[in-house]
Amino acid sequence: MINRVCLETMGFSRKEAEGKFFLKLFFKPKVHNLVSSLLEEAKEPPFLTTYEENWQAKDGDERLISFTVASLRDKYGITTNYTVTGLDITMFRKMEEELWDYRTSLEEQIKRRTTELVASQTRLSGIMETAEDAIISVNSDQQILMFNQGAEKIFSYSADEVLGKSLGLLMPETFRSSHAKHIHNFGESGHTSRRMLERSEILGQRKDGSVFTAEANISQLEIEVEK
Predict the structure, then answer these.
(1) For residue range 98-116, what is the model confidence (pLDDT) as tens digits?
(2) Between vectors from CA 206 to CA 202 and to CA 212, what angle results, nearest 5°?
(3) Do domains 4-88 and 132-227 have the same CATH topology?
(4) CB count, 10 Å around CB of 213?
(5) pTM, whole model, 2 decimals?
(6) Exposure class string for 129-148: b at 16+ Cβ within 10 A, else e
């Protein structure tokens, strides 16, 4: 006996399928031994087994079927028949493979872009570090995160001496409060850059306490939730 769903899936009419040998009707010769072993396996407890294998349709196309073979036994425990139930998973496996290929491609793109980004950041870091001008990076709390060689020469501090310290360290005490407020307001403004001399004169203070006039530009970059 064979049901309508199986006939429609495999493309056979009932007349073409009923009475035919199961192995020869649905499987290529190369897997006959495998399917035969599944039938033998189903004779032993728990008297069923499940497997995935390509079934051959009438038109020659292969359909990937997840099927379960269960043995039917008489009152003496002797196997008399088998029932085979299956689910066509051809499209599911195809989609799974396409998703896997897409994931692999995406991972390769991310890896390539990450490599390019690291290289770009390395080049930019090298340019910034060796620039003659002072380049100073601070976080939203105005703590110094980067202090390049130009800044070391101008302010006479080493990077190790100022990293993590307040930006106010680099200006006269009387100017620190107003400058900190200006930096805060700029951060809240949404602007990406501004020439600070458009607002007021900037004074810097070296490690030895000497004060000098500075021309400065300010810009901000948002990294995730940090500015």
Answers:
(1) 999 999 999 999 999 999 9
(2) 40
(3) yes
(4) 9
(5) 0.51
(6) eeeeebbbebeeebebeebb
Q: Which residues face 82 on adjacent strands?
A: 71
* Alpha-carbon dihedral 161, 164, 170, 173, rounded to 10 degrees: -120
Alpha-helical runs (H) found in 80-136:
90-130
3-state secondary structure of 156: coil
Question: Cα–Cα distance between 193 and 89 in angstroms, integer?
Answer: 57
| E strand map for the chain | 48-56, 62-73, 79-88, 136-138, 144-147, 193-195, 202-205, 211-214, 217-219
- The CATH number of the structural domain formed by 4-88 is 3.30.450.20
Domain ranges of the chain: 4-88, 90-130, 132-227
Q: What confidence tens digit (pLDDT) does each residue in 154-186 have?
A: 999 999 999 999 999 999 998 899 888 888 888
Tokens of 81: 């028949």
Residue 34 near residue 67, CB atoms below 8 Å: no
| Diameter over CA atoms, the chain | 106
Q: Taking a C-beta distance cutoff of 8 angstroms, is the pair 203, 214 a contact?
A: yes
Residues 6+ apart with CB under 8 A from 63: 9, 10, 54, 55, 56, 57, 88, 90
CATH no. of 132-227: 3.30.450.20
CA distance readout (Å), 61 to 11, 12, 14, 25, 166: 10, 12, 19, 13, 72
How far apart CA 143 and CA 166 sit, in angstroms, is: 5
Distance CA 118, CA 129 (A): 16
